[in-house]
Design goal:
Largest sheet: 8 strands, mixed
CATH topology of the largest domain: Rossmann fold
Number of domains: 2
Structural class: alpha/beta
Number of helices: 18
Number of strands: 14
CATH superfamily of the largest domain: NAD(P)-binding Rossmann-like Domain
Helix content: 40-55%
CATH class of the largest domain: Alpha Beta
Strand order of the largest sheet: 5-2-1-6-7-8-11-12
Strand content: 15-25%
Length: 372
């Protein structure tokens, strides 16, 4: 699509503000939606977001076409919807957006975590949404950014390559074509099973946090999360979690990247094992641990990533004892039933499907018992 494409960015956190400002600086008409008016009051008053950036990155004042907390108003004049919120909010956004969606709109989750588009599609179906929209998800957030103030955002980097897949995969090329002028970094991610099961945050974040719980609580997170936290024994746990994830993917006919392969691809960090590879990634140096255990590394990554991976494993005969142990630890620490709150296969709408039926749904859009 051309600069005539009208973008809606849902979410005014670190990534959402950066994306809205960047798109506006590229010349697109951009609407920013956040459900809490106070969170976007300053942006609405100024008419946009001031973006600062790394040395050669985009910067300047990104003037927005509309800033609103009315989702219906936000969707009315939009071609492409970029959802940049914690994945726990995806289902709520789908429920609230369902009455206002129009034929031809494209909705992209940044990122989907595991099963994001499947859950979104199930909610739209349950809400009786008949609009012909295209759903897609990115494997990870394209930006490393932070909010520098109420109407300011700072960009640290833009990833060079990010896999993206549509549901079904036959529509991926259409999505890449639609957003390609703005984001040539997105590439074909094969399917939403690939993007969802190549979810590295699921492996690194919850276990590193929980296995360093005492240190986090006693120091307020005053240590290097990856360098100090990923000791040889902790790294062995990460390796086992990763092995289970890759095996679950294989049971679904997916060749997932291992954590070591990902570290080499993303950072050219290699080693004789995962512990060495993590410690050979210079970008991890200086990254502090979470200041407390009430952190998205647990309350988002466990229910939205580990739970669906484990659920797929249990459904299709893969032992997920290590993943289950991390989920159970999270439930105990947070006094919360993440199995119930998380993305179960029923919430993804695939609990009754065989592997072949799931593959046909994500690949070509054919749902068992009829067209998806």
């Amino acid at each position: 699509m051309s600069k005539d494409s009208r973008y809606l960015v849902i979410g005014a956190g670190h990534g959402g503000k950066a994306m809205a400002a960047h798109l506006a600086l590229m010349g697109y008409a951009v609407t920013l939606y956040n459900r809490t008016p106070d969170n976007v009051y300053a942006i609405k008053r100024r008419g946009g977001i001031e973006l600062t950036s790394y040395e050669h990155g985009p910067q300047g004042f990104g003037r927005l076409a509309l800033v609103t907390s009315d989702l219906g108003e936000a969707l009315a004049e939009t071609d492409i919807v970029m959802i940049v919120v914690p994945s726990a909010a995806h289902a709520e956004i789908a429920r609230n957006a369902a009455p206002s969606l129009r034929d031809g709109q494209i909705i992209v989750l940044h990122p989907g975590r595991t099963g994001g588009t499947l859950e979104f599609a199930k909610v739209l179906k349950d809400k009786g949404c008949t609009a012909s929209v295209t759903l897609a998800e990115a494997e990870t957030l394209i930006y490393a950014a932070r909010s520098d103030g109420p109407a300011q955002a700072r960009l640290f980097s833009i990833k060079e390559t990010v896999p993206l897949a549509a549901l079904p995969a036959t529509r991926t090329a259409d999505v890449l074509d639609a957003i390609g002028d703005a984001y040539p970094q997105f590439i074909d991610g094969q399917s939403v099973l690939h993007t969802g099961l190549n979810n590295m945050g699921a492996i690194f974040h919850p276990a590193l946090t929980l296995l360093n719980a005492g240190r986090i609580e006693s120091t307020g997170g005053d240590f290097q999360f990856y360098i100090d936290g990923a000791t040889p024994s902790v790294a062995k746990v990460l390796e086992e979690l990763d092995r289970e994830r890759v095996t679950v993917a294989a049971a679904l006919g997916i060749r997932a990247r291992t954590a070591e392969e990902w570290l080499k691809m993303a950072y050219n960090a290699v080693g004789g094992n995962l512990h060495e590879a993590i410690h050979n990634q210079p970008g991890y140096r200086g990254i502090k641990a979470p200041a407390a255990l009430s952190h998205r590394y647990i309350f988002e990554d466990v229910p939205m990533s580990l739970v669906p991976i484990a659920a797929f494993g249990q459904r299709y005969g893969v032992s997920v004892a290590a993943i289950d142990s991390i989920i159970r630890l999270a439930c105990i620490v947070h006094q919360t039933d993440y199995w119930r709150r998380g993305r179960t296969l029923a919430k993804l709408g695939v609990d009754q499907l065989s592997v072949n039926e799931i593959r046909r749904w994500v690949d070509v859009g054919e749902m068992a018992g009829g067209e998806g």
